């Protein structure tokens, strides 16, 4: 009897092959395709076929042939990635803050048989599981961590859904939180906290800037004082070295002058030359009277140059007659005597000027 039915079905297939291939299979009122013997299954769809009320097979994409009356298409599962909007729901965080949160769930049917016979409505079941899992995960986090650890929260929800939905033949690819709504008062307090944190950071940065500025100014003053003291030290050293060199040069020049003067005085007519020098100095000193002060002290006979020169030469002669063995043969002794004589002569001339 079944063989006759199959032969009859084959005849019907030969007669209506053109007509069947031209039109898609008709669907019943429930939305499932009807058994038209020859069926074309679209790509990325799995049609679950029951024979006499029992699972028979899953139709592959392409051409498929079923037996009328006996075979029935019971479920049609889409193998594409399915996007499901998770409705907004309330959840309480670890610090007892009530949030209104919703999300988007991305899943795919991996086993059409389990998705058809493991659960009544796979999408509804996964949606409810996502909501309960989201409430459970939010209860483990405080309000601040909910915003900071959003990615870890999504990953935890995906792992929990995959563990529960494995027996349904469904795999959750990812879960994304769309919006998080907090109560108005909590939102105001969060804004105040953010403003306070910003003011705190601004104050800290300003104080750090002031501290760095003061340190830089103090460091600059320190370096300036060090450099100034080093410069002053170097200046004093240079000045002292210059003064010492000048004194040494003056001493050497004076010693050389005294040596030359001593040598000149020992020669012929040296006394006459000394008298001439004393007379010139007297004239020069007399010409400078009353230039520095209005008070003038003059000798009794300022016009008598001869007596003044004779007096100076008498002082000089008295000094040159000082005893000393070997004074005429020693050049150094003569230099010292001449130096002492020059000093005495200067004192005598100063006394003459004052008188």
Automatic annotation (TrEMBL):
Spell out the GO cellular component terms annotated for this protein, sorted alphabetically and separated by semicolons: mitochondrial inner membrane
| CDD domains given in the database record | SPFH_paraslipin (cd08829)
Region annotation Disordered: where it falls in the sequence: 323-355
Q: Which UniProt keywords apply?
A: Mitochondrion
How this chain sits in the membrane, per its record, is: Lipid-anchor
Give the GO terms filed under biological process for this record: mitochondrion organization
Q: What is its main location?
A: mitochondrion
Please report the stretch or stretches of sequence annotated as the Band domain: 36-194
Q: Gene3D superfamilies in the record, alphabetically?
A: Band 7 domain
Superkingdom of origin organism: Eukaryota
Q: Enumerate the subcellular locations listed in this protein's record, separating them with semicolons.
A: Mitochondrion inner membrane
Nucleotide-binding as UniProt keyword: no
Q: Which InterPro entries match?
A: Band7/mec-2_domain, Band_7, Band_7/SPFH_dom_sf, STML2-like_C, Stomatin_HflK_fam
UniProt record similarity statement: Belongs to the band 7/mec-2 family.
What role does this protein play?
A: Mitochondrial protein that probably regulates the biogenesis and the activity of mitochondria. Stimulates cardiolipin biosynthesis, binds cardiolipin-enriched membranes where it recruits and stabilizes some proteins including prohibitin and may therefore act in the organization of functional microdomains in mitochondrial membranes. Through regulation of the mitochondrial function may play a role into several biological processes including cell migration, cell proliferation, T-cell activation, calcium homeostasis and cellular response to stress.
Q: How does it assemble?
A: Forms homooligomers. Interacts with MFN2; may form heterooligomers. Interacts with PHB1 and PHB2; recruits them to cardiolipin-enriched mitochondrial membranes and stabilizes them. Interacts with CACNA2D2.
Kindly provide the name given to this protein in its UniProt entry: Stomatin-like protein 2, mitochondrial
Protein species of origin: Sciurus carolinensis
């Amino acid at each position: 009897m079944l063989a006759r039915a199959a032969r009859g079905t084959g005849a019907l297939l030969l007669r209506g092959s053109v007509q069947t291939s031209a039109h898609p299979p008709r669907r019943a009122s429930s939305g499932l395709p009807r058994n038209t013997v020859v069926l074309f299954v679209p790509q990325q769809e799995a049609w679950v076929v029951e024979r006499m009320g029992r699972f028979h097979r899953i139709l592959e994409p392409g051409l498929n042939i079923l037996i009328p009356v006996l075979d029935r298409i019971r479920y049609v599962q889409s193998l594409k990635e399915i996007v499901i909007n998770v409705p907004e729901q309330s959840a309480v965080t670890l610090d007892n803050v009530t949030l209104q949160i919703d999300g988007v769930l991305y899943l795919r049917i991996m086993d059409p048989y389990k998705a058809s016979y493991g659960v009544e409505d796979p999408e509804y079941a996964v949606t409810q599981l996502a909501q309960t899992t989201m409430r459970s995960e939010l209860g483990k986090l405080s309000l601040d961590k909910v915003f900071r650890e959003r990615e870890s929260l999504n990953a935890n929800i995906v792992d929990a859904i995959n563990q529960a939905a494995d027996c349904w033949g469904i795999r959750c690819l990812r879960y994304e939180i769309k919006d998080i709504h907090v109560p108005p008062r909590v939102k105001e307090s969060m804004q105040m906290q953010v403003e306070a944190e910003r003011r705190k950071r601004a104050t800290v940065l300003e104080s750090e800037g002031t501290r760095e500025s003061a340190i830089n100014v103090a460091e600059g003053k320190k370096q300036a004082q060090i450099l100034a003291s080093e410069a002053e030290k170097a200046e004093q050293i240079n000045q002292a070295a210059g003064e010492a060199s000048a004194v040494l040069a003056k001493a050497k020049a004076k010693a050389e002058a005294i040596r030359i003067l001593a040598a000149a005085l020992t020669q012929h007519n040296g006394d006459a030359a000394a008298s001439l020098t004393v007379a010139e100095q007297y004239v020069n000193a007399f010409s400078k009277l009353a230039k520095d002060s209005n008070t003038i002290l003059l000798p009794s006979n300022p016009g008598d140059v001869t007596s003044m020169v004779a007096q100076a030469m008498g002082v000089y002669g008295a000094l040159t007659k000082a005893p000393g063995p070997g004074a005429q043969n020693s050049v150094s002794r003569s230099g010292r005597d001449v130096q002492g004589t020059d000093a005495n002569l200067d004192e005598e001339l100063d006394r003459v000027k004052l008188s």
